[in-house]
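To whoever is on call:

I kicked off a structure prediction for a single chain this morning and the downstream step that reads the tokens threw a length-mismatch warning. I double-checked the sequence; it's 103 residues and nothing unusual in it as far as I can see. Pasting both halves so you can look.
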Amino acid sequence: MNQSFVSLNKLHLLELQYADEIKALEPPHTYVPWVVLDGQPLYDDYVDIISLICKAYKGSKTPQACHGLSLPVTKHKDTDNNLDNKLRGCMMLAWLNLCRIME
């Protein structure tokens, strides 16, 4: 059997498995990427993602990225507007990619 066919078949099975796992998540995902911190989706708080992660961090040594940050307390709010959700997800993905570039 062709090795590339086997690999594609395994990839398809993995996609189906992950699709089932995503469908079962609570709260239901309304856009991607869906970022959850301490069991709560970040929704539109992607701008303060590092501050939120630092605030939630429970380790003994504070990561360098957390030094000198103000740690906002934010109330999460969901919206049913699919276009807003998709745009929010795209903006977050762009922001995360920018952070990777700057590392």
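Update from on-call: the warning came from a stale cache, not from the record. Cleared it. Sanity check on the structure: DSSP finds three helices and two strands in the chain.
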